[in-house]
């Protein structure tokens, strides 16, 4: 009976150990993640393989380090200097993700804190380099898309050999000192008013030119018409007009002599 009890105890212990080994040996990599295998009794990090999503069995003494490999983002507010030495504040967001096939090297050389170790400093350096090329006016108005593209290029250069892929840089806001911002807005308003005045002036000038051309055209036409009208033509036109008036059913015509031009004089017209 005692032997049976000992056997039962050993069996139970064995089952428990087996369960522990199974639990320790099984690893589930969730969606959007990847694993790096660490072998403490062998060659350390397995740099040949990146372990994808799913269920994996590993030796109990090994360790699987899990990393998110889907697109991530990091936002920061940086104080940087413009080309003329004025301090501006830039709010930006960078979208990035680890290079999947290079994940073991990222863990081996940079570690879990690679965002703060290499990504954030690269973003800061790129922002300072790019913003330092522009004046506050350019930063405030028309250069944001260009700045975003240039910061992206700079960050990619910095991280080219760091096993991190940068997908996009978004500059959300550029904050200038209050006095500088007010001066820029005042200048922009003045420029807009100047452009509006120039537009109205150009429009008025074109209208004056149009009226001048129209008047000159009418004057030429009248001159040609006056030169073409003779006394005979005028008399003929007068006779035609008199006949049309006389034929009107609403008229009563009484001809008394003739006028100075030889045309009849019509009286009693109703």
From TrEMBL:
Alphabetized Gene3D superfamilies for the sequence: Band 7 domain
Band domain span: 24-188
Subcellular localization(s) per the UniProt record: Membrane
Transmembrane segments: 7-29
Membrane topology qualifier: Single-pass membrane protein
Swiss-Prot/TrEMBL keywords: Membrane, Transmembrane, Transmembrane helix
Listed CDD domains: SPFH_prohibitin
Any one cellular-component term (Gene Ontology): membrane
SUPFAM superfamilies noted in UniProt: Band 7/SPFH domain
Pfam family, one: Band_7
Family annotation (InterPro entries): Band_7, Band_7/SPFH_dom_sf, Prohibitin
Domain of life per record: Bacteria
Main location: membrane
Official protein name in the record: Band 7 domain-containing protein
Organism of this sequence: Nonlabens marinus S1-08
Lineage: Bacteria, Pseudomonadati, Bacteroidota, Flavobacteriia, Flavobacteriales
């Amino acid at each position: 009976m005692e032997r049976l009890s000992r056997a039962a105890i050993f069996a139970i212990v064995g089952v428990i150990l087996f369960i522990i080994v199974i639990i320790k040996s099984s690893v589930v990599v969730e969606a959007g993640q990847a694993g790096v295998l660490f072998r403490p009794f062998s060659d350390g990090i397995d740099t040949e393989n990146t372990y994808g999503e799913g269920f994996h069995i590993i030796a109990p003494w090994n360790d699987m380090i899990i990393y998110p490999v889907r697109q991530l983002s990091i936002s920061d507010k940086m104080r940087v200097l413009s080309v003329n030495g004025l301090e501006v504040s830039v709010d930006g967001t960078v979208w990035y993700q680890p290079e999947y096939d290079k994940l073991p090297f990222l863990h081996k050389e940079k570690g879990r804190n690679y965002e703060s170790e290499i990504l954030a400093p690269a973003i800061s350096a790129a922002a300072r380099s790019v913003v330092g090329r522009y004046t506050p006016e350019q930063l405030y108005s028309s250069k944001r898309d260009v700045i975003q593209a240039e910061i992206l290029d700079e960050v990619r250069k910095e991280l080219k050999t760091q096993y991190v892929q940068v997908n996009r840089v978004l500059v959300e806001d550029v904050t200038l000192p209050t006095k500088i911002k007010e001066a820029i807005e005042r200048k922009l308003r003045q420029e807009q008013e100047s452009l509006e005045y120039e537009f109205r002036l150009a429009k008025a000038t074109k209208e004056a030119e149009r009226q001048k051309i129209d008047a000159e055209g009418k004057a030429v036409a009248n001159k040609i018409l006056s030169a073409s009208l003779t006394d005979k033509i005028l008399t003929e036109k007068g006779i035609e007009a008199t006949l049309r008036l006389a034929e009107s059913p609403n008229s009563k015509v009484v001809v008394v002599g003739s006028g100075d031009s030889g045309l009849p004089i019509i009286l009693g017209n109703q």
